[in-house]
């Protein structure tokens, strides 16, 4: 059970980065669809649990050490090549979004220029990525319980102190930016792009577990925990839409409404989740092209970090809406390949 919880915690920790924990993603994919967004969150929960289980079990069975090992086996030579490089590109894109999210958090909470927060997160990420993979996995899993506790407090407060009825808040919510014309498409896109986000690191984590049932249970636990967080944040956003509409980091605003101390705790939680995802994405992207044991790895980490800093200056909200939506459609191919491979019981070639 300990190993299952570790996989589940890492699953959540990788996905719950800047967009998720800040509330920005949840607004665009769920809250903006009103009541149907709640149904969408429930569908997404089931999707995360099932696909997470499939990835974990297949990775454990094959003993994968990188996403490349699995992609080519489940997608074939030609589709695998396309998916491999597209996924690698988006890993870098998500890392950049995390850097931008750190900049927005520093600005909203401390009044500092955006580039200061971005630079701080990039330096911290670079230093961590130079560590060994087991240390990275442990760090990622540690922050999840802390965030869950903070989000529960904010959700209870938001619902207890809402100024308008849910019916009135829904009207405001439905005027916010939406990623798709239908709520169910948005829910499926949310699952597919997040599976793309966590796929690389989850294959590495699960590939080190020799018991596929233990690994699969970790995928299920992670999916259910994500569902709880999605629903809590969605309800928080819906209850306070009149006060948080248009903000980059709406969850931080709600935390500050409770008490400045809670705002600081939320900032720490948010930066912790941004750090988790940034490290997971940055590490997965770099090891795809450079072996950690080679001297070129550390040079590559620093160079890619500089590129990430420049790209992060585009802006957090803009990056979330553009990069994540595009990754969602490509993620459908990945999810379909994973599920098909799981049903046909793929095994390591003899």
UniProtKB/TrEMBL annotation:
Gene3D superfamilies: Amino acid/polyamine transporter I (1.20.1740.10). It comes from the Bacteria. InterPro entries: YkvI-like (IPR038728). The keyword Transmembrane applies. Keywords: Membrane, Transmembrane, Transmembrane helix. The chain crosses the membrane at residues 33-58, 78-100, 112-129, 136-160, 183-205, 217-238, 258-285, 297-317, 323-343. This is Membrane protein. It comes from Lysinibacillus contaminans.
